[in-house]
Design goal:
single chain, about 150 residues, alpha/beta, Immunoglobulin-like, three-stranded mixed sheet, 2 helices, about 30% strand, globular, binds copper (II) ion
Length: about 150
């Protein structure tokens, strides 16, 4: 049983090291979301492969069940409307649709009022424009989106 437990721990550490919420390094990108369903920053630039640390604060006051925000970076070529349509029915997974899992380059959990969520990830290696958005129902359509430009 000890051997099994250790194997699980190593796997968990490797998973954490590969992306989300482990390393505190990376260039800090601070975002806020508000009760008007907007990010304060809608354009981010990065070098190919640059390590970024996104911090998203929900600056609003409405209850989390009605107004939460996240940051999801989509792979190039992903249709954001199709993604958010699928997300709207994925409340059980924090409005992250399982069928789009391989299209998500980075994501944070949902932030309720006053909460801050974070994600550390490498910018894509391929130059281009990558959409980021909030997948809480209705927020993308209200304009809660932006573009990460890799160049
Ligand atoms: Cu939102």
């Amino acid at each position: 049983m000890m051997t099994f437990g250790r194997a699980v721990l190593v796997t968990a550490l490797m998973a954490a090291g590969s992306g989300v919420a482990f390393a505190q390094t990376g260039r800090l990108v601070e975002l806020t979301g508000n009760d008007l369903m907007k990010y304060n920053v809608t354009a981010i630039s990065a070098k190919p492969g640059e390590l970024l640390h996104v911090k998203l604060k929900n600056a609003g006051t409405l209850p989390k069940v009605a107004m939460a925000h996240n940051f999801i970076l989509l792979a190039k070529g992903t249709d954001p409307a199709a993604f958010t349509n699928a997300a709207a029915t994925a409340s059980a997974t924090g409005y992250v649709p399982a069928q789009f899992k391989e299209k998500i380059l980075a994501s944070t959990p949902l932030a309720g009022p006053g909460e801050t969520v974070e994600a550390t990830f490498k910018a894509p290696a391929a130059p281009g424009e990558y959409v980021f958005l909030c997948s809480f129902p209705g927020h993308f359509l209200s304009g809660m989106k932006g573009v990460l430009t890799v160049k």
